[in-house]
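Entry 12.
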Amino acid sequence: MTGFISHHLFSSILAVGGTIILFQLFARLQQRLRLIWLQPMLMTILALIAIMLWQGISFEQYFSNAWLLNALLEPAVVALGFPLYQHLGTIIKQWKAILLVLCIGAFTAIISSFLLTIAIIADHSIAVALALKSVTTPIALAIAGQLDGNTAITAFAIILAGIFGAIIGPPWLKFLNVNSAKVQGLAIGAASHAIGTATVSNISYQHAAYSSLALIVSAVITALTSPFIINFLSSLLLAV
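Predicted 3D structure (tokens):
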């Protein structure tokens, strides 16, 4: 029994420590080389996949050993509320405009993703999965399950949306001459949820505040409206 506990403890330390070391190495490398595509989270995931395939480690084994990292996600998300609190006064003054913008963004993401997927692939379960790609994983998976969406593709699409938003989002917005920290934060938070928010939080507290706000509000809007929107679009397509 003692040997089993010692082995599990060693495996946990190795999994958690190795993941953190890989992330820090890629973060330092990106900071030094300044390459957009060298996103630490993306590169860490790819490196872990390669190592797990090489060593024959299943995802279940890795997940059971790296449980501490998953447990730290909740306090990390709560910590994002601090910069939001710092800018609460300004946000309250602009709440109508912010809510309108985020509603338009959420509706556009759901409708365009669903219709484009139906037009190209003609698969309802995949269309539902991709329509929910821009919200946090727990909410998206719950809604996808209710609407007969493919939950595996939903999870994969959420990761891709977060990573690509984190990599391409800030430079793309600058290219479009969108330089306001508030607007950049809202755009990244609405499109790329927690991963994008974590990335732009490194730019400024204002980015973190507005991105956190967009992440939360967009998730609520999507949770409340996406079942009605997707069911309406499905019935409309069946009628056509």
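Annotation: The longest helix spans residues 205-239. The radius of gyration is 20 Å.
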